[in-house]
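Example for tutorial group B:
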């Protein structure tokens, strides 16, 4: 199957189709790629089409997509809520993927420092959940430590939670006092 027949899979397909349409306006050569995708979708059975219709109606009902009529026909657009849902799904998918780090520790600690205001308690708790999921260990309430490079994931989280550099910092240090327990925990 080309895409998941779940609402999230359909949402990804719609976002991907929007990207292809934008790219097609720049480079007509991509028409061949789109034709191939259309052929693959046509080859699916009736059950798959029913699942796609069901998923599409679910996305409309939840407010992730909307259908607008225009002179050229009906147009499906992804709403702001849909983009937020898709980006949250992307972050979960990225964080669920195993951390690929070098087998050899570079003898540097990554300190993740964050200062999210108490008014944004939900954002702070969600951020803390993702930091825990990465595998970082809490040194203090808003100071976490990790021995391997996690800068890409931290940047992804900063963008998703719309945090400033002042609210979230990643500091790389050569040594920490009394880090034997950390070395033992991370097997460094």
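The residue assignment follows.
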């Amino acid at each position: 199957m080309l895409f998941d027949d779940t609402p999230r899979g359909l949402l990804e397909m719609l976002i991907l189709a929007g990207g292809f349409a934008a790219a097609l306006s720049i480079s007509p050569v991509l028409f061949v790629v789109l034709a191939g995708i259309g052929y693959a979708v046509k080859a699916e059975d009736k059950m798959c089409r029913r699942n796609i219709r069901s998923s599409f109606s679910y996305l409309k009902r939840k407010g992730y997509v909307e259908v607008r009529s225009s002179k050229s026909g009906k147009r499906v657009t992804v709403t702001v809520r849909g983009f937020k849902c898709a980006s949250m799904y992307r972050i979960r998918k990225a964080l669920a993927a195993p951390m690929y780090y070098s087998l050899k520790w570079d003898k540097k600690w990554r300190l993740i420092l964050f200062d999210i205001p108490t008014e944004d308690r939900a954002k702070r708790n969600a951020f803390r959940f993702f930091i825990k999921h990465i595998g970082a260990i809490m040194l203090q309430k808003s100071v976490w430590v990790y021995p391997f490079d996690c800068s890409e994931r931290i940047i992804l989280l900063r963008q998703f939670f719309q945090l400033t550099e002042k609210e979230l910092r990643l500091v790389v240090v050569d040594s920490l006092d009394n880090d034997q327990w950390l070395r033992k925990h991370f097997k460094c």
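The first strand starts at residue 65 and ends at 70. Compare this with the pattern of hydrophobic and polar residues in the output above.
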